[in-house]
Design goal:
490 residues, alpha/beta, FAD/NAD(P)-binding domain, Enolase-like, domain 1, 3 domains, 5-stranded mixed barrel, 5-stranded parallel sheet, 24% strand, globular
């Protein structure tokens, strides 16, 4: 059988792959979209959307518990774990269905359900995927492509030490298939996934301990924000962010964890499940990239230009979680669009300025990062000043009893440009967006302070931090002391 030939092959039909497909199709109809697993994207199936479906009832119950502080008598909500998880699965399936519905306009002949592996830089061997249509896949055993987009996504990583728990080890994908909430879960990994799920489960009545390494939490690089976040989260959720001599063992239907806690005490605790939230691995390691001639980094990911997504000077492009650069949905969509555009037009490859980096952790209080991170500014030797604001006395936050938070804003000395921020606080997903927009517009701190701020709103806390930053830059006076955000004309 002669190998089939396409202009562009896209390996992976997640967010990045689907975005690349739509872009490539503007230029050619000779496309292969290759997928070996279920359609639906990581975000919709096992990522950002189902996690928020678990976080939402947890936050609702937590608000009930705060009612007495407003003077309202109320009992804490009784949790029906079966009902909670039924809604999580039902709504999750709706979101997945929306993604699948969006593919209805795709040309069926473009879709190949198979595992792809490189035989050389242009040739792919296709093996039938489990559960795929054998007839459709059997039509093509080899495929030659002029250009290729790698959008294979990633998978959870489980460290060897945790595997001693056997089938009591789960990953976040498994959580969303639960029929009921368990009694107890040990969460290993204090990054975004571990913190979000650990706190949500705790608020839904599950006994939880969050284990981390090196006293890190949610990838916060600013030491002041990290210290504040650790204190705030630890006040509610049992954490061991620097546990030592950790030993995991299976005992019947439980997991036993022996460890030295952060205070130096020996502990032994028993849990129903061990949730491994210890990072993710790019699926590129399954493609046989050693047969392409591409230069790979220590993780096995091709060296690529993030402004083009091109691997070296080759005809191969990478996008999404498989690139392990900015593993969030909106970045995956942007990278897929960029990779698809350049793959379709290759060898005419164009750079595109990327959007301002932004990340949000949907903990409570929320954690967010925008633009340049503190660690990056320090490592790059940037001359910058810091403006800091606490949300503990911020007017609107205190009114709503959500007055926990610390924001640190970074401005460039000399120019006064706002460079970035790291923060923890109430509804900071919204403040992160405002900051990302003005940073991308290359506004100075003084210019931002000329924009309107309503009263009383949480955004006034941002204005206070900007005023402090302007003073630290030598471009403005010291803000009024304890002005309760000063009102609109303050």
């Amino acid at each position: 059988m002669k190998p089939s030939h396409v202009d562009v092959a896209i390996i992976g039909a997640g967010t990045a792959g689907l975005s690349a497909y739509r872009e490539v199709r503007r230029y050619t109809d000779n496309i292969a979209l290759i997928e070996s697993g279920p359609f639906g994207t990581t975000c919709a199936r096992v990522g950002c959307m189902p996690s928020k479906l678990l976080i939402a009832p947890a936050e609702a119950r937590h608000r009930l518990e705060r009612l007495p502080e407003f003077g309202i008598a109320a009992e804490a909500g009784r949790v029906d774990g079966v009902a909670v998880m039924r809604r999580v699965r039902s709504e999750r399936d709706r979101f997945v269905g929306f993604v699948i519905d969006s593919m209805q306009g795709f040309e069926p002949s473009h879709i190949i359900r198979a595992h792809a592996r490189f035989e050389d830089a242009h040739s792919l061997r296709l093996d039938r995927a489990d559960g795929a249509d054998a007839t459709k896949t059997a039509e093509v055993r080899h495929l030659r492509a002029d250009r290729i987009v790698l959008a294979t996504g990633s998978r959870p990583r489980i460290p060897a030490m945790l595997k001693a728990a056997g089938d009591r080890v789960i990953v976040n994908d498994d959580v969303f298939e639960w029929q009921d909430l368990p009694e107890s879960v040990a969460v290993f990994g204090a990054g975004v996934i571990g913190l979000e799920l650990g706190q949500a489960l705790r608020r839904l009545g599950v006994r939880v301990r969050l284990f981390g390494r090196g006293a890190q939490l949610a990838s916060i690089s600013d030491p002041e924000v990290r210290a504040y976040a650790v204190r705030t989260i630890a006040a509610e959720l049992p954490v061991s962010l620097d546990a030592r001599d950790v030993r995991v063992r299976r005992d019947g239907e439980s997991v036993v964890i022996d460890f030295i806690d952060d205070a130096g005490g020996a502990r032994s605790e028993r849990y129903d499940w061990l949730l491994a939230a210890t990072g993710r691995i790019s699926n590129l390691d399954r493609l046989g990239l050693e047969n392409t001639g591409l230069t790979l980094d220590a993780r096995g990911i091709p060296l690529f230009d993030p402004l083009t997504m091109q691997c070296g000077a080759s005809h191969i492009f990478v996008a999404g979680d498989s690139a392990a650069d900015r593993p969030v949905l909106h970045e995956a969509a942007d990278e897929g669009h960029l990779a698809g555009h350049n793959a379709a037009r290759y060898p005419a490859v164009f750079k595109h300025v990327r959007r301002t980096p932004m990340g949000v952790v949907f903990s409570d209080p929320q954690i967010a990062f925008v633009g340049k991170r503190h660690a990056h500014l320090v490592s790059e030797g940037v001359d910058f000043a810091i403006g800091e604001v606490s949300f503990e006395d911020q007017g609107r936050s205190r009114v709503m009893l959500v007055n926990k938070g610390l924001m640190r804003l970074y401005g460039e000395a000399g120019t006064g440009l706002l460079l970035g921020a790291e923060m923890i606080g109430p509804e900071h997903e919204h403040l992160a967006h405002l900051l990302a927009w003005v940073i991308q517009m290359r506004m100075t701190v003084s210019d931002i302070l000329e924009l309107p701020f309503y009263h009383p709103v949480i955004e006034e806390g941002l204005r206070t931090g900007l005023r402090e930053l302007n003073r630290a830059l030598g471009m403005g006076p010291k803000p009024p002391l304890r002005c309760i955000d000063c009102g609109p004309g303050g």
